[in-house]
């Protein structure tokens, strides 16, 4: 039994899903994997199910009926993990933008080094992004600086999606009260953890843009993040 679960949300990731699952299981530390699939029409869920016999009691899938947003997929996964005996729950993309080799570093930042939350940070030591167009790099970088300025949260990469949470953090945050489902979900979760007084550590990582499949980024997702942080700052800590 592993004490750490990696949650991978998917929608049309058939090109990446088997390789990322095998890469997670190939690490020196034993991790379990939960794929939360939003009814991918390309058969991503079927690929996961075909691998489950090879990785019994290590690989799991939760199939949802529709594409309901990244935030709701992670919350679904968080609740699934909290119903079981996992002490560390990690968010990770399916497209190899998050390097599986960094999983142990994120885990150790919480397990050994006192973090309640550890963030795979692109911006804690300069800008560590590979293969992104300059426009997208600037948008992401200045979005994080904007969030930091508005909310005062002491985190360089507020929009990062490569995050390890201690169980206690997810038990403290009222997941049913999370308002945002897109890009701003990542900001809101970190903001609530910080306002609750949890120790957030940033682990410098190199983010590499996907080479297979299509990005899920959209203008609406970015707008949610930009305007949502103002609302969070005005409201302060939402009710538990």
From TrEMBL:
Single biological process term from Gene Ontology: glycolipid biosynthetic process
Glycosyltransferase listed as a keyword: yes
InterPro entries: DPM1-like (IPR039528), Glyco_trans_2-like (IPR001173), Nucleotide-diphossugar_trans (IPR029044)
Domain called Glycosyltransferase 2-like: residue spans: 6-172
Domain of life: Bacteria
UniProt GO cellular component terms: membrane
GO molecular function list: dolichyl-phosphate beta-D-mannosyltransferase activity
Keyword Transferase: yes
Pfam families listed in its UniProt record: Glycos_transf_2
Gene3D superfamilies registered for this protein in UniProt: Spore Coat Polysaccharide Biosynthesis Protein SpsA, Chain A
Keyword set, alphabetical order: Glycosyltransferase, Transferase
Similarity field: Belongs to the glycosyltransferase 2 family.
Protein's name according to its UniProt entry: Polyprenol monophosphomannose synthase
Species of the source: Polaribacter haliotis
């Amino acid at each position: 039994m592993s004490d750490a679960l990696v949650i991978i949300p998917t929608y049309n990731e058939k090109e990446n899903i088997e390789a990322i699952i095998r890469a997670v299981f190939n690490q020196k530390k034993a991790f379990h994997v939960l794929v939360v699939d939003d009814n991918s029409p390309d058969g991503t869920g079927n690929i996961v199910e075909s691998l489950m016999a090879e990785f019994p009691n290590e690989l799991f899938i939760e199939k949802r009926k529709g594409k309901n947003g990244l935030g709701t997929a992670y919350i679904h996964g968080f609740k699934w993990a909290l119903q079981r005996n996992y002490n560390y729950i990690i968010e990770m993309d399916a497209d190899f933008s998050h390097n599986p080799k960094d999983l142990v570093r994120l885990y150790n930042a919480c397990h050994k080094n006192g973090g309640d939350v550890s963030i795979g940070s692109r911006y804690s030591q300069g800008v560590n992004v590979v293969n992104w167009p300059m426009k997208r790099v600037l948008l992401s970088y200045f979005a994080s600086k904007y969030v930091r300025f508005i909310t005062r949260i002491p985190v360089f990469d507020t929009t990062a999606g490569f995050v390890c949470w201690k169980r206690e953090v997810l038990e403290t945050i009222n997941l049913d009260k999370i308002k945002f489902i897109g890009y701003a979900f990542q900001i809101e979760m970190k903001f609530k953890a910080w306002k609750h007084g949890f120790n957030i550590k940033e682990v410098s990582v190199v983010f590499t843009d996907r080479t297979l499949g299509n990005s899920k980024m959209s203008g609406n997702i970015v707008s949610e993040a930009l305007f949502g942080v103002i609302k969070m700052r005005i409201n302060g800590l939402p009710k538990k």
